[in-house]
Amino acid sequence: MLQYIVRRLLHLIPMLLGITVISFVIIQLSPGDFLAEMRLNPIVSQQTVDQMRRNFGLDQPLYVQYLKWLWNAVRLEFGYSFAFQVPVTWLIGSRLLNSVLLNVALFAAAWAVAIPLGIFGARRQYSLADNTLSFVAYVGISTPVFFSGLFLLYIAFRTGWFPIGGMTSIDYEFLPPTGKVLDVAHHMVLPVIAYGVFGGAGLMRQMRASLLEVLRQDYVRTARAKGLAERVVINKHAVRNAINPLITIFGYSLGGLLGGSAILEIVMGWPGIGKLLLEATVQKDLYVVMAALVIGSVTLVVGNLIADILLALSDPRIRYD
Amino acid sequence: MANRAVEVRRRSRGASSEAPRAELRTPAQLAWRQLRKHPMALAGGAVLVVLYLLVVFAEFLAPYSLDFADRERFFHPPILPRFADSQGVSLRPFVHGTTLADPGLRRYEADPTRRYYLRFFVRGEPYRLFGLFPSDVHLFGVDPPGRIFLLGTDQSGRDQFSRILYGSRISMTIGLYASAVTIPIGLLYGGISGYYGGRIDNVMMRLAEFVISIPDFYLLLTLSAVLPTQVGCTTRFYLIILILSFIGWAGFSRIIRGIVLSLKEQEYVLAAKAAGLGDLRIIARHILPQTASFVIVVVTLGIPGAILGESALSFIGFGIREPCSSWGNLLTQASNLPTLILSPWLLFPGLFIIAAVVAFNVFGDGLRDALDPRVRAG
Amino acid sequence: MGQPGARLAVIGVLIAAVPAAGPAVAQMGRPSLPDVPNPKVVEASDVGRFGGTFVVSSISDPRTFNLLVAQETSSTAPLGYLFESLAETNRVTLEVEPNLAESWTVSRDGRTWVFRLRRGVQWFDGRPVTADDVVFTLNAAFTPGVQSSLPDVLTIAGKKIGYRKVDDYTVEFRTDQPFGPFLRTVGGIAPLPKHRLEAALRQGATEFNRAWGINTPPRDLIGNGPFVMHSYAPGQRITFVRNARYWKVDRQGQRLPYLARIVIEIVPNVDASRLKFLARETDSYAARPREYAELRGMQQAGNFTIFDGPPTFGGDFLMFNQNPAGVRPPKLAWFQNVKFRQAASHAVDRDTIVRQVYAGRATPRYGPESPANKFFYNPNVRQYPYDLARAEALLREAGFARGADGLLRDAQGNVVEFTIATNAGNADREAIGNLIRQDLGRLGMRVTFAPEAFNTLVGKLVGTFNWEAMILGFTGTIDPHNGQNVWKSSGSLHAWWPKQERPATDWEAEIDRIFDQAATTVDQQKRRQLYNRFQEIVAEYVPLIYFATPLTQPAFRNTLANFSPAPGAFYDIETIYYRTPYR
After folding, report:
1. How big is the A-B interface in CB pairs under 8 Å?
2. Which of B42, C304, C345, C548 is the most exposed place for a label (fewest CB within 10 A)?
């Protein structure tokens, strides 16, 4: 197993090379450049714009730019953001923790709600409760996040129970430690609801479908025939098998732990990397985008690896060598 | 639709095998019998049929053309046919004329003295039904200058009901196009990868991860710059969707591969192997059908996912572009609070989205049960 | 008071002039401070009370804290609390008045200007603000590679402006020719502390561009303005506290500012900004035209006032590509034809645009300057009322004719068809584009309307020139001279045909002459006449077809005092205060 993990991680290297080359080319081929906004400003002259292109190295041939970037990236220097003139690592680092914090919370909430409800729904298939749950899930799935986020902000405004977006309040700096925790938790309620309904709904449906599938298997029938208690049948036999596809999903969604909530962050004003990356992408802030791609690819691959390992652990029939 | 694809594949495979002919028709018949047992699924199916009828007859049902705009009546609230006013009761439904009273608050005042009667099979703007038969008959309408805006108008004074009908042609088919590309590729790719395992699996999955990591935003940007602008907004969008689907299969194939990994160790697969069946045959005949329920869930989430994805694309300006319409791009207008508070009818496209998504899901649920041989046996 | 939807960079020359001030009083017993013998007196309606936190919102993070390289409002606005310019524009009269420089003189030939700095003004760390700082700032700006747009406005007819330190508190500027917008331009310079940034500049331009980035500890940002930056949480907020060494006083001689703290809350979008304002989390909000009527009805309940503000400076327009490098002959001939463009202008339904897009809060516009520009706006230019018959007549005069199929053809029989582009996601421009497409369609033209990504659009505009017609907007400033990059035929933003070696048409040649002449004229009356003529030419030959000038509608919490509607800002940050204890 250890050998397998090492091998998988080694595979990361050619893959990252491939991804960065392709991305670099696609990004640079796409029209316009970072300086688009500045070019439209009447008081900025062509000379200034050209000068900035030179400063950013954008006047050099593509492969030179890439090789320079690669050489730095190998030494974990991801360059400077065009827009912010600060190291990309600082820029992303200043918000990464916020994103992780939110995503872990969202993740935990969605799974904590979705799995039991999915099991519940499968056990009482087509009951009133199941149908109601399904319906709520459908509506949850079919509401765009930008929309539910906006709606919740409006609710916050009408009721006054929650702050209008953000992560902390104005006086955060002056609060005692417990006050700080409570303050952040207070701000987290709405995003968690927004995402819980959306992300949790899909998960719940998957769990329900998967368990229904297992419940029809012969061994479940056998277990029931043996006279095992329904609770034991479900928990010990059915759920353990039904959860396999979910584990794959779990691993894969680990890959989205950093960027998965981007739109939600943008709508709810959460100071994570979502808005930063979206703006960098739209403006072609090259090195920020490249760093984000590297981080994204690494988390994706590691997430897949974890998914594979978990799958092997939960299902002894699966082996890798 | 992938579930249809699964069904078709089964049938063709059935024909090639030595199974007796009598069994050929039974899967579909049995499925129908099963489906009938679920009223919710049937209701979902019925909603889908209605929605697809809207797609087909959009031009006939819409009182106005896609491009019609009444500049005097932007953000106009819905005008519903009525049977009575201060002048008395009328058996023929009619509407009142309105005038803009306050552009700031978008208040319109009805003129109760002027009635415009609702008429059916009226002649209006010409169109081609199914793109073939020229016609200018619309199901209903009122005589100008009267207006019938069942679901209100948007900021340019375009009839939202008509635009939703036209938009359904894009929204209701996008998922089909996308799934038609992604599901077969993903199934086969994931199936092979999971079945063979080992080195092949490793290489194939790394390739899939590679494909997933290609930044689709820039691909979109590059494509939309390369694609000609003159081909019309709809054609253009289909091209982009198609190209993106060729990348989109990768995520799906990984999940299929995960399922196949555990399925391939099951006794019946081992038995098939022992019986000397070819690998591809085992994958296609014995393993992939087992993933059907999962695939159907994925597809029933995937088609509406495409509807939502299109709305998200519209949100950042890459979806269907003006002057074309789709539900997503219509709903984007409502993503702005001041507009929404004064003109809540802009949410109607959202209702259509929800209706379609729920219908797909409910129907998909029923279909999964109906297609499952074990349920059928029991 | 940003224009709704317009996300293009907004930069005035008076970069640091966010806090503006009223005319100083020079009557009985000039106030003075122990450290500043001649503090600037800021006139305001009330003598205020001290304390309170003023909370505003911004929809983007700052990109740098280095004022010299800062380009967009999200950076210049917060830095405006930290830095002060030599002279500033009065928010009421729009006249230039003393600030860091307490006086100036100009030589008779109009080429030498001497600025005397106010004594006793201190940086946050207690060091005096001197002529060395001014010279250092200019040196830095002119260092090759430093990403400042200051050299662009301080280069007159290709020659950079001359400057030298006379003594610690005197700086002399010299230009080769008299320079019309001198005072607004040089007065807008905000000095940076030499003792803090010298080391970075010595290491080169790249190092200087990165100095005082957003990763700098806020306490290291040394300015001389009314507030000191206390903290910056990326994506969340910037907090400022009162500068106890500030050098402006109220009319009773009390040291300003009144406010104890300013917080800029960073919000994701205008909707959040609006909600925060209505929920009383923030104290001011720049409402969009469509919100005006609605917010008016909420004033009482929300304890705020929404004002009928001045028009915006910038404006959107439609233009046709006249560049032979970008468009091929049949189309090029149409677009270069004045009558064709005039016909198109007559086909723009400006009244509907005003009503639909701006909810009635705008005025139709025909010329390049906004009526907001009290100094240079010329109302008497050729107007193009919505009149399709007139448009058809103009097209006929130009040799176009409609066929039996209803399509418009030119004299050679080519069907008139083209694509109008704009940036996708800008709802206002999309609505305007749809209106125009319909009306041009009624004239028999076959028009495709194609919103595209902003980057793509700009790439075409300045790079490939591969576009036909476009809807876009530029920002504006008080002095038309700052638009020379757009209006002079050699300019890189002369969008319909950039960087011409010599003007292609007579009217473009005349505009070139006007801009050159106005730049070297000091008499502001004469300059006004010159720019009046420029506006008439643009309206006559319509290279850019303007639509409308939207109004602004700022809203403020009623607990705030010392503000009033004005053509410039609605308040001076130094004198604004809370009437009742608040926050």
Report:
1. 139
2. B42
Strands C417-423 and C469-474: parallel
Nearest by CB to residue C419, choosing from B69, B229, B321, is B229
Binding-face residues of C in 246-265 toward A, CB within 8 A: 263, 265
Helix and strand numbers, DSSP H then E, in chain B? 15, 5
Per-residue pLDDT of A276-320, as tens digits, reads 887 887 777 888 888 888 887 788 778 878 877 877 777 766 666
Which of chain A's residues have a Cβ under 8 Å away from the Cβ of C53? Answer: 170
Q: Which residues of B touch C (CB under 8 A)?
A: 67, 69, 71, 74, 100, 102-106, 155-157, 221, 224-225, 229-230, 232-233, 316-318, 321-323, 333, 336-339, 341-342
At residue B15, the pLDDT reads 38
Residue A42 has pLDDT above 70, yes or no: no
Pairing relation of β-strands C112-117 and C170-174?
A: antiparallel
- Where are the alpha helices (H) located in C453-493, listed in sequence order? 454-459, 484-487
Helices (H), A160-238: 177-215, 218-225, 230-232
**Are B254 and A317 a contacting pair at CB < 8 A?**
no
Contacts for A289 with CB less than 8 Å, ≥ 6 apart: A23, A27, A277, A280, A281, B215
Query: Is a pLDDT exceeding 50 seen at residue C197?
Result: yes
CA proximity to A27, closest of A1, A60, A53, A66: A66
Q: What is the pLDDT of residue C60?
A: 87
Whether pLDDT at B184 is above 80:
yes
> Across the interface, which of A31, A37, A154 has its CB nearest the CB of C9?
A37
Q: What is the mean pLDDT of residues B11-21?
A: 40
> pLDDT band for position C14 (50/70/90)?
very low
Read off the pLDDT of each residue in A141-151 and give the average, rounded to a whole number: 75
Name the average pLDDT for chain B. 77
Please indicate if any CB of chain B lies within 8 Å of the CB of C421: yes
Measured distance CA(C385)–CA(A21) in Å, rounded:
55
Test mutation, C76, C208, C276, chain A, max A CBs within 10 A: C276
Q: Model pTM?
A: 0.82
CA distance from start to end of chain B:
27
Provide the H-helix boundaries in C168-223.
182-187, 194-202, 205-210
Reduced to 3 states, what is the DSSP secondary structure of residue B261?
A: helix
Residue C507 has pLDDT above 90, yes or no: yes
C271 contact A CB<8A? yes
